[in-house]
Amino acid sequence: MAIIEVANLSKSYGELNVLKQMTFQVEKKDVVAVIGPSGSGKSTMLRSLIHLEQINSGTIHIVDEVLVKDGIYAKPSEIKRITSKMGMVFQHFNLYPHLTVRENLELAPRIVKGEPMTGFRKRSLELLEKVGLSEKALDYPAKLSGGQKQRVAIARALMMNPEILLFDEPTSALDPELTGEVMQVMKNLAEEHMTMIVVTHEMGFAREVANRVMFMDKGEIVESGHPQQLFTNPKFDRTKAFLNVGL
Ligand code: ADP
Ligand code: MG
After folding, report:
1. Using DSSP, how many helices (H) and how many strands (E) does the chain show?
2. Averaged pLDDT, 195-213
3. Ligand 2 center from residue 1 Cα (angstroms)
4. Is the interface score ipTM higher than 0.90?
5. Which residues pair with 35 in a beta bridge?
6. Taking the first listed entry, what is the main subcellular location of this protein, grouped into a coarse class (predicted)?
7. Whole-angstrom Cα distance, residue 46 to residue 52?
8. pLDDT in tens, 136-158
9. Tens digit of pLDDT for each residue in 64-81?
């Protein structure tokens, strides 16, 4: 079974149908770039996977477990356990301003029952090293650049040893000169075979790092394929129009 299986996922806000019968799979070690116009439902789709949004109907399996089946959710304790297999990185970092970098990393494992109290310090320092920020462990987020904040957010998402990482436009809030350092960290994770879904406007990243690109429009997956195929030879007019490939 795929590591993520979504079938007929639909989600509305009141009268507005934001996701329409979405069906897709993500295999272990996939790096899926999700592209599409603003308002097409990309964030809602990611947020639904990790249960930051409740869907109206459909089925989501995460790592062989049922998060929601035909619109019926697992028990709250199960939902928590299943969604903890994923980490998420947001456009605006969402770091806690009153905690140091190291404390930002250590907060979630501390409040999750069952995690031993020892070991966080070692892991947080290892992960900060991995994202090139060892020397910032004791600083507060306000002292960091946007690129550094996002690298902290990625390290924080890794603290719980997720099997899947979800990224929602991780470089959209950054000055262009700072996107590279964040992309590099993500590229390294891809090379270590982390399963990733990345909503992004960075077509370079989609081309070079993703093994699959999924184009969404108006709450639907219009087209999904290998970057080479999708970027050079899109099948549908909506994809061509978005990518500005001659119609
Ligand atoms: P994208 O990430 O592709 O830009 P979103 O998933 O953020 O798209 O939004 C899809 C649609 O859902 C948009 O029309 C947006 O206005 C609407 N939407 C998103 N969140 C909410 C919400 N909490 N309440 C009402 N409408 C929402
Ligand atoms: Mg969005």
Report:
1. 9, 11
2. 96
3. 28
4. yes
5. 215
6. membrane
7. 9
8. 999 999 999 999 999 999 999 99
9. 999 999 999 999 999 999
Closest ligand to the CA of 12? 1
Kindly list the distances between the CA atom of residue 235 and the CA atoms of 153, 157, 219, 228, 239, in Å, as whole numbers in the listed order.
36, 35, 18, 12, 7
200 lines ligand 1 (CB under 6 A): no
pLDDT of residue 115: 62
pTM of the complete model: 0.95
Tokens of 135: 């020397």
Tokens in use for 13?
A: 């806000």
Residue in 9, 43, 46 to alter for ligand 1 test, most ligand atoms within 8 A of Cβ: 43
Read off φ and ψ for residue 214, nearest 5 degrees.
Answer: -120, 120
Q: Is 44 in the pocket of ligand 1 (CB under 6 A)?
A: yes
CA distances in angstroms from 123 to 106, 119, 203, 244, listed in the order given: 9, 6, 33, 44
The candidate with the shortest Cα–Cα distance to 194, out of 7, 29, 25, is 29
- Main-chain dihedrals φ then ψ at residue 61, nearest 5 degrees: -105, 135
Ligand 1 touching residue 204 (CB < 6 A): no
Tokens for 70?
A: 């035909």
> What pairing do the DSSP bridges indicate for beta strands 86-89 and 31-35?
unpaired
**Token output for 113:** 């029952």
Give the residue-averaged pLDDT of 216-220. 97
Instruction: For ligand 1, say whether the CB of 43 is within 6 Å of any of its atoms.
Output: yes
